[in-house]
Structures are given as C-alpha cells and as structure tokens.
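Run PilN domain-containing protein through structure prediction, thanks.
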Amino acid sequence: MKTTIINLLPWREERRKKRQQEFILLLLLAAGLGAAIWFVWSSAVDGQIAHQGQRNQIIEGQIRELNQQIAEIDELEKTRNDLVERMKVIQELQGNRPSVVYVFDQLVRTLPEGVFYTEVTRQGSQFTLKGTADSHSHVSRLMRNLDASDWFKNATLVHIAAEREGERGNFVLRVSQSTPKAEEDAK
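Sure, done. The structure for PilN domain-containing protein is below.
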C-alpha cells in the first residue's frame, strides 16, 4: 500500500486568510455603515437646529415688533393722560371763571374805609390778604365783613403791626373761599 500524505496546512492557511479578509471586509462595511448612519443623524440634527434657529429668529422679530407697539401704546397713553389732565384744568378754569369775578367783587365790597390791600394771593381755596390799615379796629371790621360775606369764611389774622404810633399798620389775613348757596343750587 502506498501511503499518500495530504498536507492540510496550506488549506487551513488559505481558509484563515479568507476569513480574515471577510472579517476585515465586514469590519470596513460596519465602519462605513456606522459613518453613514452618523452622517445622516448629524445632518438631521443640524437641519433641526437650523430650523429651530430660523423659528427663533422669526419669534425674536415678532417680539421686537410687539415691544415697539407696546412702546407706542405707552406713549399714546401718556399723551392721552396729559391731554385729559389739561382738559380737566381747562374745565376747572372755565368753571371758576365767573367765581373769580365774584370773589374780587366781594373783596372790594367787604373792604372798610381806611384799609388797603397791597397783595392778594390764592392757594387752592385759601386767600392770603396783605395790606395796610389806619387802625386795628379797621382790620377787625374787615374780618367781620369777610366772615359775613357769602363768598368767604374763617377769616384769621396772621400778623398785624404798626411801625410807629399813629401811623398806618401792616396786616396779613387768611380767609377761605366758600361756595355761596346760589352757586351750589346752580350746580
């Protein structure tokens, strides 16, 4: 019998090389597939980020427009409030116009002889009357006349002084304006 020897080494070596080549091929294929998946995912995320950035820009533009409109509305409200205040002042002045004439008329009518006004000032409904008088009794008569008037109330003497005996004295009175009954009925 003849023996034949078969050498299996080269066959196993070829098989190992073939498997190694297949493994490397599969490894490269998996790496390529991973890179493709990563590229697709990265592109999708970048696209979503870009889309959200555009939406944010649109929203920021609308916010700027709304802030401008709010500023315009605030300015219009301020202008409106200023106009309303001016209208109130004008209406108040128009309403008080006739009463000023009556007040000055009453100031003259209540003034006794020997008394002169040097200054009349008004703050709200309070009048401050400064003047000179021949005597203290003339000032008291002025105060009684003012209290008896329909247009004034609460006459109060703030200051009275004469520099020398027998000379005219200076005085300061405060009196409040009252609304006469006839004018209250007219309102």
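Strands lie at 115-123, 126-133, 152-162, 169-177.
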